[in-house]
Amino acid sequence: MNKRLKDILLKLYSLILKPRTKDEDSQRRELILNIILAGSLLLIAWSHIFVISSHLAHHESGLYVALFPFMCVGVFYILLYIASRRGHITLASYGLVLLFLIGTIYTTSRWGASLPIGLLSYALIMTISSVLISPRVGLIVTLIPILTITIFGRQEILSGLRPVWKNGLISIFDIIEYACIFAAIATVSWLSSTEIEKSLKRARASEAALKKERDMLEITVQERTEALEKAQFEKMFYLYRFAEFGRLSSGLFHDLMSPLNSLSLSIEHLANTLDPHIPLLKEQLGQATKASDRLATLVSTIKKQFHLDVDKKHFCLNDVIEETMALFTYTSLNSKVELLFEADEQYFCFGSPTQFQQVVTNIVANAFDSYATSPTNNRIIIIKLHQEHSRILVCIEDQGPGIAAEILPRIFDPFFSTKEKQQGMGLGLASVKRIIEKDFAGDITVESEPNIKTIFTISLPLPPRDE
Fold first, then answer.
1. Which of 92, 178, 187, 354 is packed most tightly, with the most Cβ within 10 A?
2. b/e sequence 212-225, b meaning 16+ C-beta within 10 Å
3. DSSP 162
4. Which range scores top for mean pLDDT: 58-72, 261-275, 297-311?
5. Cβ partners under 8 Å of residue 224, min gap 6
6. In this structure, are strands 453-461 and 443-449 parallel, antiparallel, or unpaired?
């Protein structure tokens, strides 16, 4: 029950009194104005009820004549209230002060300058003017009651007509006393309102300064956090590269051991070969040479994977891709995934070949991983290299399970991974994106159709001809 009553009161407050302006000062003045207008309308309604009940109780005539003044005042208050609710706060405030002044001046002219209710009304008018409009207007409005009391008081003294409610005439000292009291009220009201406005300005200035300081602090914290994350990412990136080496080490060492065994057997055969068998000797030496060359290529490729220098130069993309494919020879045979490379011509790029090899290695390794849980029989990874307009495109396509649409936008985020925690750190594709964008001035995108295909497309600018 209490909650329901509270909800009803809140709705009434929001409908009748709640300020609609955005400025703090305007909201304060609007709330005070709405309370005065709403209270005045309630008093006018009560006056209507009182007049009607009085006429009915005494069977008096002229009910509409008696209600007419209250109805006019009520209509005027309603218009002021509508103006206030539509945001015309200053207009409604001037209208309210003017209405009070007219009523009080009329009362003073009819019942005398010293009528207590009139004096109190003047004090109220001065306070309302200072609060709702401005302290300066409150001071100006104070002159009207002083002039009004002086004029009507002097007229009362000169005419010698005493108000029916009063035993004696007003004196010049009474007029001076009332004027001094009004001046004192206006001065206090002006000082109070002025100090309140100054305090509000200081409070707003302090609030603005604190907000600015808070924003600067947030910016500083954000910048330091980004710097820390960047430094952390760099360290994790290099750790990730060593972790990737461990993941690929079985295939690498298998490819290392095969040419070593071939070289060892060839040399052993060569040692047992006698001089008459020169043709056979040449054949064995050729095999040993080929095996040694393959071993040198593999070792060179492995060294590049962990070479931290980023010396930029012109290099052939085709050669780097073919070297990278050599790293996955054992993985391709073991997982029964065919790794193909298609290029219509030789393409060159300017940058670090080592870093580009890291990019291709990472994406191809992920493509192999995608087939680990895929039941598809068409197990193939295709690397395509071609030119489109003024860009070189490297497309790496697999036909694994694909990437879900809801996580596709996050695939390049640092530390985001779809693998188990022990299988991935979420740094591979983030480092790929960083290398392509920062070191090659290119971009990378991904398209995926679940259970159909996934294509990573690397777009690189053509190298300047004068490079």
1. 92
2. eeeeeeeeeeeeee
3. P
4. 58-72
5. none
6. antiparallel
Q: How much is the pTM?
A: 0.45
User: How far is the C-alpha of 423 from the C-alpha of 329, rounded, in Å?
Assistant: 21
Burial annotation 101-124 (CB, 10 A radius, 16+ → b, else e): beebbeebeebbbbbeebbebbbe
Q: Which pair of structure tokens corresponds to residue 174?
A: 């009474």
**Stretch 382-403: mean pLDDT, rounded?**
91
Tokens for 204? 């707003």
Query: In a 10 Å sphere around its CB, with 0-12 CB exposed, 13-18 middle and 19+ buried, how is residue 192 labelled?
Result: middle
HEC profile for 450-467?
CCCEEEEEEEEECCCCCC
CA terminus-to-terminus distance, the chain: 83
8-state DSSP, 161: P
Alpha carbon distance 338, 336 (integer Å): 6
Asked if residues 19 and 31 have their Cβ atoms less than 8 Å apart, the reply is yes
pLDDT one-digit tens code per residue, 275-333: 555 665 556 556 566 555 566 565 555 555 555 555 788 899 999 999 888 888 878 88
Q: Residues 6 or more apart from 121 whose CB is under 8 A from it?
A: 100, 103, 104, 107
Q: Tokens at residue 367, please?
A: 């493509």
User: Is the Cβ–Cβ distance between 335 and 371 less than 8 Å?
Assistant: yes
Which pLDDT tens digit goes with each residue over 173-217?
Answer: 677 777 777 777 777 777 777 777 777 788 878 888 888 888 888
Q: Looking at beta carbons, which pairs linking 160-165 to residues 24 or more positions away fall under 8 Å?
A: 163/111, 163/112, 163/114, 163/115, 165/111, 165/112, 165/115
Residue 63 and residue 68: Cα distance in Å, rounded? 9
Closest CA to 354 of 439, 458, 428: 439
Rounded Cα distance, 257 and 100, in Å: 106
**Backbone angle region of 341, left / alpha / beta, with phi > 0 → left and psi within -120 to 50 → alpha:** beta
| Nearest residue to 458 via CA among 422, 423, 432, 430 | 432
| pLDDT at residue 26 in the model | 82
